Automatic annotation (TrEMBL):
Segments forming domain ABC transmembrane type-1: 73-273
Entry protein name: Carbohydrate ABC transporter permease
Pfam family, one: BPD_transp_1
Keyword flag Magnesium: no
C-alpha cells in the first residue's frame, strides 16, 4: 500500500474516531438532561434514553424552590470567583520573579516548588495546618490551602519567559517600577495564560467537595457540590413528597436536575474564554 493511500485512509478514519470519542462524552450528558426533564412514570419504567419522555419542568421547579440549594449555589459562586482571583494573583506573583534571570535564588525556589509536586502532604497534616490557622468552618479553608498549584506555576512561568526581555527593559528605562511593569506590560500580554489558568482553577474550585467535607462542619456553609452529593447518595423521596406536583416527580429526576444545575454555570464560562484558552493551551509547545 502506497503512503498516499495510507494517508487518505487515516484522513477518513480520524473524523470517525473523533466523532465516536465525542459521542462517548456527549451521550451521558444528554441522558442526564433527558432524565431531568422526564416524568416519574417514564423514569421508573426505564423509557428515557436520550430524549425526554412525559416532558415536565417539575424537577427543576422543585429543586429551585429549595432555599438550601440557592444558598449552596451562592457559596459556590463566591468560592469560585474569589478563589480564582486569589489563585491568579498568587500564582502570577510567584511566577514572575521566578522568570527573571536577575533573581538569584530562583533555582532554589523552583526546586522547593518541584518537591511539592512529587511529595504531597497527607490529609491529616493538611487538616492540622488548617485547624492551627483557624480556618476551620470558614470559606477561607476552601480557597487558601490551594492558592498556588505547582503545575500551573510552571506553566505561567514558561509563558512569562516567552515575553521579550526588551519590553521589560524599555519599561524600566522609562522609569516604570516592577509593579507598573507587571500591570502595564506583563499581564496584558499574558491574557492567554491567565484565561487558561482561570478555567483550570475555577473548574477545580467549583467541583471541589472533598475540602468542604474535611474542613466544614457548619451545614450553612456547604457549597453546591456537597448538596449535590447529598442528593446523589441519599434518598430524595422526602423532597418529592413535599412538592406540589408529586405525580411528575421522582427521586432520580430530582437528582438529575441538581446535576444539571450544578454543571451549567461552569460550562458557561468556557465560551467567554475560548479564544484565549486555545492560545494558552499552546504555552510551551513552541520554542524559539
Amino acid at each position: 500500500m502506497s503512503p498516499s493511500n495510507k494517508t487518505s485512509r487515516l484522513a477518513l478514519l480520524n473524523p470517525l474516531i473523533l466523532l465516536l470519542i465525542s459521542l462517548t462524552m456527549l451521550l451521558p450528558i444528554l441522558n442526564i438532561i433527558a432524565q431531568s426533564l422526564s416524568g416519574s412514570v417514564a423514569l421508573s419504567t426505564g423509557k428515557v434514553i436520550l430524549w425526554p419522555v412525559e416532558f415536565t419542568m417539575a424537577n427543576y421547579a422543585t429543586v429551585l424552590h429549595q432555599a438550601a440549594i440557592w444558598r449552596a449555589f451562592g457559596i459556590s459562586v463566591i468560592i469560585t470567583v474569589c478563589g480564582t482571583l486569589i489563585n491568579l494573583i498568587m500564582t502570577a506573583s510567584l511566577a514572575y520573579p521566578l522568570s527573571r534571570h536577575e533573581y538569584r535564588e530562583r533555582k532554589f525556589i523552583l526546586l522547593l516548588v518541584l518537591i511539592t509536586m512529587i511529595f504531597h502532604a497527607p490529609l491529616i497534616p493538611n487538616y492540622l495546618l488548617v485547624r492551627s490557622l483557624g480556618l476551620l468552618d470558614t470559606l477561607w479553608a476552601l480557597m487558601l490551602p490551594g492558592a498556588i498549584s505547582a503545575f500551573n506555576l510552571f506553566v505561567m512561568r514558561s509563558f512569562f519567559l516567552s515575553i521579550p526581555n526588551e519590553l521589560i527593559e524599555s519599561a524600566r528605562i522609562d522609569g516604570a517600577g516592577e509593579l507598573r511593569t507587571v500591570w502595564s506590560i506583563i499581564l496584558p500580554l499574558s491574557k492567554p495564560a491567565m484565561a487558561t489558568m482561570s478555567i483550570i482553577y475555577s473548574v477545580a474550585l467549583w467541583n471541589n467537595y472533598s475540602n468542604a467535607m474535611y474542613y466544614i462542619n457548619n451545614r450553612a456553609l456547604f457549597p453546591l457540590q456537597v448538596k449535590l452529593r447529598e442528593f446523589v447518595i441519599t434518598d430524595s423521596s422526602d423532597l418529592a413528597n413535599t412538592a406540589n406536583d408529586v405525580a411528575n416527580l421522582s427521586p432520580e429526576g430530582l437528582k438529575m436536575a441538581v446535576i444539571v444545575i450544578a454543571t451549567i454555570p461552569i460550562m458557561l464560562v468556557y465560551p467567554f474564554l475560548q479564544k484565549h484558552f486555545i492560545k494558552g493551551m499552546l504555552i510551551g509547545s513552541i520554542k524559539s
